Amino acid sequence: MNRRTRLGLIAYEYPPLVGGMATYARALARHMRDRGYDVHVFANREAVGEAGLTVHPILTTDLARDLPALARQDMDLWHSINFGYAPLAVLKRPFVLTVHGTDFLKPWVRFTMDRVPLLWRLAGLMASRTALRAVHLPSLRCVDHVFTCSRFSARLFRSRYPSVRRLTVVPNGVDKSLLTPLPMAGTSRRHARCLLTVCRLGHNARKNVDGVLKALALLGDSLDLEYHVIGDGPGRPALEAMAARLGLAQRVRFLGRISDQALREAYASAALCVLVPRPERDDVEGFGIIYLEAAAAGTPSLGGRFGGAVDAIAEGQSGFFAADATPEAIAAALKAFFTGQVRFDEAAIRAHAARHTWPVVLQAVENVYERILAGRGAASRLRRQSSAKPATVSLSGDYLQKDEQFSCPPEDPPATRERTPRLPHRLETAHVSPPAHESDAWTPCLDGGS
Which among 338, 354, 370 is the end of a domain? Predict the structure, then answer.
């Protein structure tokens, strides 16, 4: 009997940790388990196993410790869910990588060495941007394929690392079980004036919960809105104090972390899900899974155009966008929704979520796995052939008809790396239109890379 393919998923962000990266990692592990892979998850030290998955709770985010521990493992294919572990590709192949946004803009997985004897003095040096690029540039040359969760993240990653040849956009997904309406769900049971935000309440300002609070203060009592915030973190006390200071204590509820069932009920009973991220230099919203989770419950979302939300929200179908992340713009969008200027159909909202269930979007990841594994015997020939190819960005999942190609050879000097993509002659007859909200010049690519 043939041995099952051993897949090593490197996912420090794995439950019980919360967030989009942890959700993605668990969904991918379960999907590949169900597809017959022998899945090994290398995760944080609090992670626990589940049926059919082997979880190794060994990761610390210090590469000085983690790389030797991972290098001792024998896998047929490696996949890191965090950019910081890309250096393992120098030691272990084949290797694929998923990047999200902040994980490559400001990596928290690095050579910290703060507790390594005699080397702790180098911790500050190794955290510098120059040192991180020096580590990751040669590592990325060994990576067989890169996935990003949105076109925004793809452009951002390409601007930092233009030499990466194969990069595929695979949007995040949603658990298909969430599409089943709860007995209490339905338009007639919704709280017609309830806003909902689901996020971690960190010290960073990216989630912009404070911006929503200020928007509510601007609106006053005119719309009689309630605001429920689900999630916890070190930033919660300051936000609670702000709500009280703005006179919103009776209309804003901070619910902390709640059960999965309670979260489903919260999505189903809210009138509108709100997450309008504030643009930050090194802290971005790569996608926004909560927009899909809300859509699965038939709840529309208000998002922002900066970041990956433009891929997570189908404008006019599953949600809409504030003009910017300021309290004034958020207040204007809320007023438009709650005065009936903007309306949505619950069935159409759910249909958008149905196109993004995990089995649908992760099929593109599995396809790349299969191509890489099938080509291992001819790896040297494939490398010679691909060395002359332009860098490729392809779109998968919900974007299978919107593949795109960049021409940015690794040897280009920095001044010429930002260039308008050109349509190869062989694709001139392809009938592919970019989304209406995409202002960049994108051109089709039918081969998809591997």
Answer: 354
- Owner of token pair 């990266």: 21
CATH number at residue 236: 3.40.50.2000
What is the gyration radius of the CA atoms in the chain, in angstroms?
Answer: 22
pTM of the model: 0.79
Please measure the distance between the N-terminal and C-terminal CA atoms of the chain and give it in whole angstroms.
Answer: 28
Cα separation, 191 vs 228, whole angstroms: 11
What would the pLDDT profile of 384-406 be if each residue is shown by its tens digit? 444 444 444 455 444 433 434 33
Q: Which residues sit opposite 39 in a β-bridge?
A: 7
Torsion angle in degrees (nearest 10) through CA of 385, 386, 389, 390: -170
Give the tens place of pLDDT for each residue, 333-361.
Answer: 999 999 999 999 999 999 999 999 999 99
Please report, for residues 41, 77, 147, 377, the alpha-carbon distance to residue 73 in angstroms, rounded to integers and kept in the order given: 11, 11, 23, 21
By C-alpha distance, which of 113, 163, 181, 184 is closest to 350?
181
Long-range contacts of 345-348 (CB under 8 A, 24+ apart): 346/187, 346/298, 347/298, 348/317, 348/318
Asked whether residue 80 is assigned to any structural domain, the reply reads yes
Cα distances from 328 to residues 217, 240, 334, 342, in angstroms, run 10, 21, 10, 17
Q: Which two tokens stand for residue 191?
A: 């709280």
444 within some domain:
no
